[in-house]
Amino acid sequence: MAKPALTVSALGDEAKAFSIAESGHAEPTLFGVTDGKAVGTYVELKFRKYLADRYTFEQGNAAKGIDFPGLNVDMKVTSVKQPQSSCPFTDARQKIFGLGYSLLIFVYDKSDNHAAKTATLKIMHVIMVDAAQTADFQMTKGLRQILDNEGNDDDLVAYMTDKNLPVDDVEARQIAEELLKRRPTQGYLTISNARQWRLQYKRVIKQADKVDGVRRIS
Asked: Are residues 60 and 51 in contact, defined by beta-carbon separation less than 8 angstroms?
């Protein structure tokens, strides 16, 4: 029997089922592991295999840049102790207009059983952040307030400069002119400037199901 095509709705349903199963699983290969990247890789590979056994979907790769390119969704796995991760820097505009894709975020709490020499990943939260809400919270909030107060392009450029948005004067002016025509959607990530964006998730965990575009799956 042919497997059905994976949809965003099914992705959410399966993420919930997977998180429940994984939270009760004792994994010997993760015992003593403190490297968050290694834990994240374990969850990502296991979840993709879990899905591949049930659905057909386009597999992500380095060229595509995200885990589920056919659904325009990237998967992130992070510890509840410091819920953050990195993502490729594409354009400074991402901090204002969003990353360009949605995020499926697994937040875990890892514990080791020293007697059994196994580890358990309790999945504390599974959150879906729609692409429209993946901009930086403070950046979009400030720019929206300027627009609400009848600010002009000079005000917008000054704000972006004060917030150290990594753009030159020419691009800042172009973005300001675009903002006057297209009001930015309120984002809910915290995005720190770096060679790779550093995404922080405390706000989306807190705001899940309280704001549009940020949904608690589990």
From this structure: no
Could you list the residue range(s) of the whole structural domain that residue 24 is in? Answer: 8-86+101-134+194-216
107-158 confidence digits (pLDDT tens)? 999 999 999 999 999 999 999 999 999 999 999 999 999 999 999 999 999 9
- CA–CA gap between residue 168 and residue 151 (Å, rounded): 20
Tokens (6 digits) for 63: 């060229």
pLDDT tens-digit series, residues 38-54: 999 999 999 999 999 99
Q: What are phi and psi of 42, to 5 degrees?
A: -60, -50
- Sheet strands (E) in 18-64: 26-27
Whether 69 and 166 map to the same domain: the answer is: no
197 strand-pairing partners:
87
Instruction: State if pTM tops 0.90.
Output: yes
List all residues 6 or more positions away from 46 whose beta carbon is below 8 Å from its beta carbon: 18, 22
Beta strand 73-79 with 118-129 is unpaired
Q: The tokens of 34 are what?
A: 């403190």
- In this structure, the number of other CB atoms found within 10 A of the CB of residue 211 comes to 14
The answer to whether residues 211 and 137 touch, using CB atoms and an 8 Å cutoff, is no
Q: What's the length of the chain? A: 218
Question: Residue 188's Cα: distance from chain center in Å?
Answer: 10
Same domain, 106 and 165: no
Asked if 170 contacts 181 with a C-beta cutoff of 8 angstroms, the reply is: no
